[in-house]
């Protein structure tokens, strides 16, 4: 059974950080193997499009402090919570991130985003009160 997947991001983070956290968390979800790719697509002109994940991924917002609480609540509920910690910003490699995490108490790790994976009922219960991530863009993106 495919788990429900929801991204929860800090809306106060800069756009580049929201985008980076989303990309890293999405790649992490895909690498875990919990989500299947759909079949490749073909448009009306016969052009082929590579497959993407078959699931819908809501993108919700929660302040950084709530992300820490949400991670703990997910763990307690048995829901996988993949986190994008603040320490990742300064790490040039995964080894550097691992060393920074090993040297930092959990209470001092701040989170910019989470990917929650688990049974639909549990993930919805954890995220029920969260709103959709709003669009911070005030001008057209080219």
Short description:
This protein is 37% helix and 20% strand.
Model description:
Pfam families: DUF2000 (PF09391). It comes from Pseudonocardia xinjiangensis. This is DUF2000 domain-containing protein. InterPro entries: DUF2000, Pep_tRNA_hydro_II_dom_sf. The structure is a single chain. The protein has one domain (4-132): Bit1 (3-Layer(aba) Sandwich), CATH 3.40.1490.10. It is an alpha+beta fold. The chain has helices at 15-32, 64-77, 87-90, 94-102, 120-127, and strands at 4-9, 41-42, 48-49, 59-61, 80-85, 111-118, 131-132. The protein starts with a strand and ends in a 10-residue tail after the last strand. Helix content is 37%, strand content 20%. A 5-stranded mixed β-sheet has the order 5-6-1-4-7, sandwiched between helices. Strands 2-3 form a two-stranded antiparallel sheet. A hairpin with a 5-residue loop joins strand 2 (41-42) and strand 3 (48-49). It is globular, with a radius of gyration of 16 Å. It is built from 5 helices and 7 strands; from the N terminus they run βαβββαβααβαβ.
Kindly list the characteristics that best describe this protein.
two-stranded antiparallel sheet, Bit1, alpha+beta, five-stranded mixed β-sheet, 142 residues, globular
- Give the averaged pLDDT, no decimals: 92
Largest sheet: 5 strands, mixed
Q: How much beta, percentage-wise?
A: 15-25%
Number of helices: 5
